[in-house]
Amino acid sequence: MSDWKEVYSEILSSYVGRYKEARGNSQLRNEILAEVKSEILKHEHEDSVGLPPHLRVAIRTVFLPHLDPKDQDDEIAIIQHILAVTRKSWEESCEGEDAREEKAHHTKAGDYKKAFTAFTAVQRIFKEEMDVYDRERRDTKDPKSIGQRNRIIQQWWELFLMRGKQKLGGQQKNGTSWPIDRYRRKNLPNMARDLIETVHRTMGSHVVMFVAHEAGEGQIKIAMFETAPGDGKKSFTQSLESSKDWCDVLSLHMSMPIGHCLVEEDSAEKHEVEISLDEDGNAEMPTWSGQKLKVQQNLARAVFQAAYAKFTKKPKARVPWGLLIESPMEYLDSQSIPEGFMMKDPSKWTKADLGLLWDHWQTLEAEEKVIVSFISCKKEDAPLSRQNGREQ
After folding, report:
1. Per residue in 319-340, is it b (16+ CB within 10 Å) or e — as a string?
2. Statement: the pTM of the whole predicted model exceeds 0.70
């Protein structure tokens, strides 16, 4: 029996150059492999030639020595992944009729609500076949598709805004054109919702969108829009504490004036701090004298955090610094900060800022008053008693 690689050497060598040049483009390489396979199957040889069971994998193996070293490593990983998936699929298919029937049983009560029709069975089989096809052909090392989708979404949003400006140019009220900020306030929410629904419907992507615009007098208005989860579960931004923190930090970034930004603390500059609480759970005046600026900033942050945790009755609830910076008196008791004090993220407080805080809090402590107390919080952080409008 002749060696298939020698018999079809001319076909294989004619595609090596194209395959090598297609490095980084998994879709193009899959198309080339399909062409080579088609050519081999089309040109049957007179002699008896045994083709390997996984012809596309075998073709990859033939092309392997002609690739660059780094490309070879990636190609070997893809080959190993395909063989592992194929082996697993074969093992599952050889489990026997009883094992397959056991595996096909529903595991959720909700699956028994509707009859398992012939169409439902075809859907399940099709999904399993497509899952196997996808695992065999996708390149998990290449995140390019995510970047491409992000660019497309950005282009769509810019197109939405452009259309809005064109509409604004033609809209008039009482003979005068509408101001741009009024148009944004009226139409921006609908534009954002239309975009995320279109992206979710056409691309299957879950979208979290933060939108900000100048509202005059140096103010920046921020709104967040998110694709509604189809399974009735919590949305991404409310599902985990880390997601909530991410939203708070991003809102804070966007609320900063143009030309300013927050800088993450270097891991080497992070300082663990501890503060004391009184019998009622209120933060006591920390020992700040002689401490470095970073330590003082973290001590002040911890005082606000302790006060917020007491008000919400949730130890893990994080201070919404973005909201606090925008409207401090809406969330803080008026005595918590000195008059005229500029609320910022604690990492932005200078020694002069902190000096004002320490002096003010020492005065309150000398009068046996609580140094920081909250009067309001984010809606999702509100304890049950306050959500129901009564204290328990």
Report:
1. bbbbbbbbeeeebbeebbbeee
2. no
